[in-house]
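Need tokens for this chain, all 869 residues.
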Amino acid sequence: MRGKIKLLIILLFSASLIYLGIYFLQEKEIYELAKDLEKQAEIAYQKKEYKKAKSLFDRALKRYDQLIILKLFKQDEINNLKNRLSSDPIMQKVAQGYIYYQGKWINERKLEQLLKEKRRLKQKIEIYLKTAKFFDSISDIENNISIYEDAIKTIDSSPFKDEKDMKELKAKLIAKIKELSKTAAEKYKEKGNLKKVAYYYEKLLGLEKYPDPDLKKELFDIYMKIYDDYISMEEYSKALDILLKAKNLNIQGKNLEDKLDFVLSQIDIDEVQKKNINDPEVYYILAKKAYNRIDIPEAISFLKKALRLNPDHIPSLLLYGKILYETGEVDKALEVVNKVLNLQPDNPSALLLAGDIYMKKNQTDKAIPYYEKIQNLPEVKEKLFNAYKSLSFHLLTAEEYEKALNYLEKAQQIKKDPRIIKAIADIYYNQKNYDKALELYLQALKLNPELKKDINSKIAKIYISKAEKYYERKNLKQALNYYKKALAYTNNPAKIYPKIARIYEKLGDTKSALIYYQRLKSPEAKTKKAALYLKLANKEYKKGNYFVALRHYQKAISIEPSLRKNLRDRLSQIYIKIADQYYQQGKYNDALEFYKKAMAINPLISDKIEPKIYRLYLLLGKKYYQQGSYNLALKYLQKAKQAYPNNKEIIYYLGQIYLKTGNYKKALPYLEKYAKSNNDPDIINKLAIIYIKTGNLSKANQYADLLIQQGKNLPLAYYIKGKYYYSLKNYDQALKYLLKAESSGYKNPEIYYYMGKIYYDKGKYLRAITYLTKAINNGYKNENVYYIRALAYLKLKDYRKAINDLSMVLKYNPNNARAYYLRGKLYYEHGNYVKGEYRKAISDLEKAAAMGIREAERVLNEARSKSGE
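Here are the structure tokens for all 869 residues:
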């Protein structure tokens, strides 16, 4: 029995254990579910889904309340959750019926109201969208834009503006406005309404989070066109407004400062200030203008405005610093400049001003680093140079030569200043570095010759020192080189001349030695010079260099006049040899000069030289004759004639000269004398021409016969004979020779005149007219030829041509009474009354009667009675 009870107890205990195990497992599942709910609640809490979080926390707490065994072990966790729900203000809000919506706690009822409002808002926007019309006119487009903008305003004024769906709706509206604004801009562009185009481009850019650079560029260009329009209309205030808009676009590379400068100069400052412009650049420009007017207080006032708008406005800071510097407030200026350099450490203007400030404070060593940073700027180089120069000379005074040399060399790199170079050279000179010192001294002198007073003596000492060293080493050429260089710089060259002369003598260069002996005034030098010149002269004479030898002999004589007597024969020989050379070269004037010199120095040789001189006279006469210098030719030929009175060449050229100069009277004896001995056709021809020109037709005829005998120049000969017979009134013979002259090609138009006159005298008027016309056409135009041709036309009753020729007669001689009479009579008897030629007849006859033509009076009376006068 006990066994059964024990077994039963064991079984019951086992069953209890099994039950407890199963129950424990169920509680564990409840606990894990509660923990999971709590985790989900925490996630919702972090997402600000507070109502959901509260619900999950509550559910978790209910699960915890279902625990019995585990509740004993997890009591702290359960209490923590309960405390959180009771103490967390958010959970309390949820417990009180509030909902966290769009970042705010809202009562559920109120939220329902808001959601209703949101639905109504959406409906309202839908109405806006439905209201918009989509036609192509600008007015429709602008109306639609206005509707969409109203819709956006409605969204922005609603409490739902930050909600996702409302943002999306707003984005759609903005996209519509952008699209329509672009279309409106294009349409206004077509119409040329730039202001409207700008308005819609501005709208587009205002709607873009990241504005289109091309659109900004295009809007900028439009602003510039509008600006130009405002400027042309002198609406400067509006021009300023549009410039500021353009400036706000921040288009790179578009410098508007000049335009702003111009516009601001056209607008009253008070008007600018009324605009309450927030652009520091404007006040900076106004400050610049005030500064340029030297209105410093106003400039500072504007700069302060600019800096209030932008404390880091670099141009304003720089100008302010500059004004402070110029007004003597250098410490304040330095503060301003340091501010700029803190903002822009490499700003060239700031660095330059900083350097200037330190220079003004006499702190050159501090100024230099600033200048060095911008030393490539042209305006800085001079400042940096002066800083180096100032500091280096200060260091020289303090005998800090190494430091001074450093700054001097820096200064020299900027500019080759002669005083800087000299200072460097002085340092090297004192250090006995003569080569370097010499190089720099020469550079300094080249740049500024006025430094020679300070430098020349040092250069001379350097060269003399070098020369003496080489002389001691018997390197004469190098010694000579340096002595000569020293000459250019020494104040006492007389000490160097003997040294140079002796070196040249040792080198065998007599000429060069002479040059330096000539510079010495001592008696010993004088004797030495004369001896050297004689030596040179004899040497050159032997070589045949007579000009050089002569020059040296003359110099020797000029030094020692007593040498002239001993050198007379030698000098006359040289003169003759030089003259002979000139003669062979055709330089007759030079030869003549030296032959005369030879005779002058040694009259005993006159018999030998005079024939050469007279020959030269003839040659010079011929030469000047060929050159057309007849006066010079005549001068020399007359001198030659004294020695050779019957020389054919002289007679010929004298005759030719007188002939060419028009002196026929003097030419004839020479030409006839030459012709008798030579029977030269050319001279005979010229003699014939001379006698024709002088009117001696008989003599001209004789020479014409000679030409015919020789068969030379027959056209001229026939012409002369024709003219000769014409003068004798032997017209048949005259005509015979004149026809021969014509047929042989004689070109003088005078021949046609004579033939025309002969034919007229013979009564052959047509032939007369033919030849007279030839004379005129070939240039023989005068009173006589027209008069005879007029008479020939009269004979042939060709009255109109006769009138024309008589008119030409009167043109050449307005006092020909007979021509007036004949022309007047022709006008009267054959003139055209309608053309008023009776009046011409009366005018000509009146003139003829006044000149004494009696026949004219009778014809004049008839003409007057016929014309009714």
